[in-house]
Amino acid sequence: xxxxxxxxxxxxxxxxxxxxxxxxxxxxxxxxxxxxxxxxxxxxxxxxxxxxxxxxxxxxxxxxxxxxxxxxxxxxxxxxxxxxxxxxxxxxxxxxxxxxxxxxxxxxxxxxxxxxxxxxxxxxxxxxxxxxxxxxxxxxxxxxxxxxxxxxxxxxxxxxxxxxxxxxxxxxxxxxxxxxxxxxxxxxxxxxxxxxxxxxxxxxxxxxxxxxxxxxxxxxxxxxxxxxxxxxxxxxxxxxxxxxxxxxxxxxxx
Length: 254
Description:
The chain is mainly alpha-helical. It is built from twelve helices and two strands. It has a two-stranded antiparallel ribbon with strand order 1-2. Helix 1 (11-25) packs across helix 3, helix 8 (170-184) runs antiparallel to helix 12 (240-250) and helix 9 runs antiparallel to helix 10 (210-230). The model is unreliable at 241-254 (pLDDT under 50).
């Protein structure tokens, strides 16, 4: 049924895509049993570990279910869980799409944080900003610390659904932030602009001004998109390795 799969990285992702295409096309219909693990290993030319990881991805996406002692079967079509890890996209368009999602989500999160943040929440946000400066001063890109700042805002909303969503998107956001910060590191004025934008968000939250916080957060992401749009093709060529990391890191998302 299948041709051998080859390639240096992320074979499990590629196998998952192949199997998903068989299901989506109807060649593997609802109720059909997937070939056995041994058969898939032989047909695709990959290891059993790769096959297991790929099938696990399909289960998480709601495409198949394992039945004890019987095998793995295609499930009826339904609204399936969000599975960003299965997506493949050009680096530039992928990162810009991430920024768009962040702008919508984090604008509202900042607004809610302005109304709900406790003194402890505010302290964690300020610590996160200080950590970004420290990381950059030490020669790092500050990406993890940047993400921690945005997470601290979401957590201060007290909205469990928002927090869970941000956590799910964590690795997507981490990869996107790595790209944006790599771009911003190319110019000192970019870095200082980002720093000021972060502090503007925090200032509005500390002041309890929900509308100002929403505006500051959305403006920050709007400017991030503009800075990425202005990056030359050479920058995107240099960051092709980050495109691979986006796909790899997604597997670690909770």
